[in-house]
Specification:
Length: 239
């Protein structure tokens, strides 16, 4: 699953791409905006694999946006202007879609993105035996943590507490750095201080997330993360 956002200064154009994203099983829409500055803020708040980006926008052009992005997410350009294609490809965009964009052409670009991001490791899927090494709370102490055993992570400034099957591991690492290392199809940021393993979610009650396990941990879903998280959960909803 690729987390994506749509940035275009024309709302009708957003609606078209949004409908295409929702009809593509491996794309998860985190958000949309007509303001590219707001788009950068979204990427700071949520893990975003892919940006569908217009070129000619007020305030910050698509080309300027890609430079500001500095490789944090991959980009597919959607534009009515073909003359910027060379600039886009020089900045290593995945594809350049000319408006009006057909669903067939969109799918071709989306599949290309899925293949590329999977190969470069930006989209994660841990295998049995996958692990991370974390610096412990004492100098020279390194801790091996099996990814499949992580239930949730709590950020505490420059430290993080990793809860693994009832054990608590304290590491000198900030939550943002740890978030970037965990597989995005298995972990989700639900609060400025919490990342949870999707497999450990037992129940959602309003703003409360209740995890499995004997401790039945309750975590508040933060306002900044609520929309993206609930949208992802609704895709699994059976009516």
């Amino acid at each position: 699953m690729l987390n994506c956002i749509i940035i275009d200064d024309e709302q009708p154009a957003i609606h078209i791409i949004e409908s295409y994203v929702r009809d593509t099983a491996y794309l998860n829409l985190v958000g949309t905006t007509t303001n590219p500055i707001e788009g950068l803020e979204m990427i700071n708040l949520h893990p975003v694999d892919l940006v569908f980006l217009d070129i000619k926008m007020a305030g910050l052009s698509g080309i300027e946006f890609i430079k500001a992005l500095n490789g944090r997410s991959k980009v597919i350009i959607t534009s009515a202007h073909s003359e910027f294609a060379m600039d886009g490809f020089e900045l290593e965009v995945i594809d350049y879609l000319l408006k009006p964009v057909s669903f067939v052409r969109f799918l071709k670009a989306a599949q290309k993105a899925y293949n590329i991001i999977g190969q470069t490791g930006q989209r994660g899927g841990s295998r049995e035996g996958d692990f991370i090494m974390l610096q412990g709370d004492m100098k020279g102490k390194l801790i091996k943590v099996e990814i499949g055993e992580i239930d949730y992570v709590e950020g505490m400034g420059n430290y993080a507490a990793i809860y693994c099957k009832g054990k608590k591991i304290l590491s000198i690492v900030n939550l943002k750095t740890l978030e970037e290392k965990l597989p995005r199809n298995q972990f989700v940021r639900v609060h400025k201080s919490f990342i949870v393993a999707i497999s450990q979610i037992a129940l959602i009650e309003g703003n409360l997330l209740i995890l499995k396990g004997s401790y039945k941990t309750e975590i508040t879903i933060g306002n900044a993360y609520r929309t993206g998280f609930l949208d992802a959960m609704r895709k699994k909803l059976i009516n």
